[in-house]
Amino acid sequence: MNAFEQHSWSGIFCAIFVVSASRIIGATLAFLSGRYLIKYCAIRSWLMQYDKMIVMNEIIKAESFKVCFLLRLSPVCPYGFLNYAMAVATDVELKPFFYGNFGMIPDSITYCLVGASVASISELSSVGVSSNVTLLVVSGVMTVISLAGVIYIGCVAKRELTRLSRIVENDLKGNSDKFII
Fold first, then answer.
1. Which of 3, 83, 94, 121 could pair with 30 in a Cys bridge, judged by C-beta atoms 3.0 to 4.6 Å apart?
2. Would the pTM count as exceeding 0.85?
3. Cβ–Cβ under 8 Å, residues 3 and 119
């Protein structure tokens, strides 16, 4: 029996649900602890001395959900850092932050499918690769497709965040007296 047989798909879907829900709840709790335990320390005033932080905060004010979602889609940004950075250094509200966390679901799907693939490949090594070539091919193809999807989504997210950054920087340059902090 392997991870990709009919009755094992329910286990994979259950794993995806548990992993996704746990990551979303954990991120939200980290955000809340950062917001209410660390928010009003000297870090925020120190960070707001930098133009890039002002731009980032303005982007997040304008497009809170979209920015949170895109940052979660990007596999490059470490989630732990992002939770506290969003809580301490920005004015994002809880609701868009929470819904933006659903951008972690593609990563969760990839991790669960890769985990199932590793289990299947491990099984193949114990019984011999030639005994089930189909399983080996399916495992490899699903892993490659998942990883390619995450990389593609990350590139699209980065492109959109760069576009938003340029828009806000242009607005700040044109209206420099409007955004005094």
1. 83
2. no
3. yes
